[in-house]
Design brief:
about 625 residues, alpha+beta, 5-stranded antiparallel sheet, 9 helices
Length: about 625
């Protein structure tokens, strides 16, 4: 009977509606779930002679409330939040380390130079002992900071490896979901699988910026970086982490293409992995290089000044500090037998980057790794005539092949070799090497200072000399050629400069000799104290303290910007998620109303079936008579 079939169809339709409401309620807290709804339609009518008679209801479809645009907005915002949150979190650790008012470098540097100032005022046993102890403390502080940065490097590498593993696992899930959705394609829409796939893509976007393309089969193909394919249909092309071609202690992210592994760190952005790589390249490595440059600049400047004086025993000043040199590592892909050694000749020209030295067949090229800028090389690469560029001297030994390359780190490992070269405080050279004196027979009141050494390797530096004025404007050094005297300009003699103050006249004589009465002489000690303000870094524009302050400021600035960006993107994410929930989210009040509505409809449909059954019984009973 038509009434019974109409009722049973209605029961089926309202049962499906109740099932869908129950599914919505059950998944109200399921991440990525989209509200589903049943679309009902009238069954095609039946012609019965006098017209068409309806045949009840049927389920047309079960659809999900979904907006592709809003879903992609959530994915994009989530990727940005993960990137900036990761960057801010790791950067804050470096910022806290370097800017620590007690554990940073600044307090140790201040304490050391305070002891040097005391030593310069009174070069006694007590002050020598104190300054030597502070020198040891300063070395330990440099080493402690560098070791913390090395530990952070290891932690960053572990986080990168974990992130890559999670990306590959999610890519596998996406390829499997593509397969399940494709196999189940019968015209019906697998809503729950589609939600799961969107959720997998959202989680992938939290780890790395992705681009998605839906093909004609309904598969979502996923790309990273500059278009590297991560998932195509049911196939995936994973990322991997391998040993760096230049440094066995470092790891790099590569893409496993059909043609082999390709390094792609420089093109991966967004998400947790992008934030980690950005932190490593923009904060961590530059901070280690800057700290190494600060240590090298400090040690070299202090050692150079100490060498210009006499120590407690009247000996030439020796190195107080040892320092590590530049690091040059060959690529594991090199086919030649060549090797290079690198010396930093001018630390002021070194920036916070590494360099690539490349054999191009027709010649060699030195390239900044951060910008790709090519630095013009001079020299031939021999020990007598090294290649020179950017403050570096490069000596090539052996034979390199076309395409061979080397990675040069001028200061990254400098602190590895930082230590105390001096055995005790007596090595600090307080006295100057030379003395200048005006002859008692001079007519004028002009005076001469004790000079400053400009060429410590001059073989005649300590031989002594006499400056004899022929007129008020001309003079001879010993019996050498006549020279012109310019008031205010230094006179250079045997690798040292001397300043004459006043107006000398003809017949005046000034004697230069080795300092043999060094007791109580603190001239070089004062100059050692002045190295605190010597501008020896950044093209001669920054002192040691200023360079470290700039490092702290740069890290702090990047950290603050990352934190601000993370907060701003979090607001964008919450807004996007709220808009998505307005379209796709489950509202329990609405579901409760639908539950009552479909329950009542189901009960009414059941009553239709009951009435139809009674009518059928009446008909049967009537036919039995």
């Amino acid at each position: 009977m038509t009434i019974i079939s109409t009722g049973t169809d209605a029961l089926t339709a309202f049962q499906r509606s109740l099932d869908t409401v129950a599914q919505n309620i059950a998944n109200v807290n399921t991440p990525g779930y989209s509200r589903q709804s049943v679309t009902l339609r009238a069954r095609p009518p039946q012609f019965v002679g006098f017209g068409f008679l309806g045949r009840g209801v049927e389920v047309a479809s079960v659809t999900r409330s979904y907006s592709e645009f809003l879903t992609q907005q959530v994915q994009t915002a989530g990727s940005s939040v993960a990137r900036f949150s990761t960057l801010a979190g790791f950067a804050a650790r470096v910022d806290d380390l370097l800017a620590d008012p007690a554990g940073g470098l600044s307090p140790a540097l201040s304490s050391f130079y305070a002891a040097v100032q005391d030593f310069s005022s009174d070069p006694s046993f007590a002050t020598r002992t104190a300054v030597f102890a502070e020198a040891g403390n300063l070395v330990e502080r440099f080493d402690a900071l560098d070791q913390r940065l090395v530990e952070t490097t290891r932690e960053t590498t572990q986080a990168i490896e974990q992130s890559v593993a999670e990306i590959n696992q999610l890519a596998t899930s996406l390829s499997q979901l593509n397969g399940q959705i494709g196999r189940g394609a019968t015209g019906a829409v697998p809503n729950d699988l589609l939600d799961q796939r969107d959720e997998v893509i959202r989680q992938l976007a939290e780890r790395i910026a992705v681009t998605t393309v839906t093909d004609e089969s309904g598969n979502i193909n996923l790309f990273v970086g500059n278009g590297q394919t991560l998932v195509v249909g049911t196939e995936r092309f994973p990322l991997a982490v391998q040993q760096s071609e230049f440094d066995p202690t470092r790891r790099e992210v590569v893409y496993e293409s059909l043609n082999g592994r390709i390094p792609i760190e420089n093109v991966l952005t967004g998400g947790t992995l992008g934030g980690l790589l950005e932190f490593q390249s923009d904060i961590l490595d530059p901070s280690r290089r800057a700290l190494g440059a600060t240590a090298a600049g400090f040690a070299q400047t202090f050692n150079a000044q100490n060498a210009q004086g006499f120590d407690e025993f009247g000996e030439f000043g020796s190195d107080i500090f040892s320092i590590g040199g530049a690091q040059a590592l060959a690529s594991t892909n090199n086919s030649g037998s060549g090797a290079i050694s690198v010396t930093v000749e001018d630390l002021s020209q070194i920036d916070e980057t590494n360099y690539r030295f490349i054999d191009e067949g027709a010649g060699f090229r030195l390239v900044r790794a951060d910008t790709g800028q090519v630095l013009p090389l001079t020299g031939s690469g021999t020990s007598a005539d090294p290649f020179r560029a950017g403050g570096l001297a490069i000596v090539l030994t052996g034979t390199t092949d076309d395409g061979d390359q080397f990675n040069i780190e001028p200061t990254l490992a400098a602190i590895d070799g930082l230590g105390l070269a001096a055995a005790d405080g007596y090595a600090f050279a307080a006295a100057g090497r030379l003395r200048g004196e005006a002859a008692l027979s001079n007519i004028s009141y002009a005076t001469i200072d004790d000079g400053s050494v400009i060429d410590i390797n001059n073989p005649n530096l300590l031989n002594g000399a006499s400056i004899n004025f022929l007129t008020a404007t001309t003079f001879q050094v010993d019996s050498g050629p006549t020279q012109t005297f310019t008031p205010g300009s230094p006179i250079t003699v045997n690798g040292a400069e001397f300043q004459i103050t006043g107006t000398p006249v003809a017949g005046d004589q000034f004697t230069i000799a080795r300092n043999t009465a060094a007791d109580g002489d603190n001239r070089n000690a004062l100059l050692l104290a002045s190295t605190q303000d010597a501008e020896v870094l950044a093209d001669g524009t920054l002192s040691i303290g200023q360079a470290y302050t700039q490092l702290v400021a740069n890290v702090g600035s990047v950290t603050a910007r990352a934190q601000a960006s993370a907060s701003a993107q979090q607001v964008v994410l919450e807004s996007a998620e709220n808009r998505r929930l307005e379209v796709s989210g489950v509202n329990l009040d609405e579901e409760a109303a639908d539950l009552i509505r479909f329950q009542q409809a189901y009960q009414a449909a059941a009553q239709i079936v009951a009435v139809g059954s009674e009518l059928f019984d009446v008909l049967l009973n009537a036919t039995r008579r």
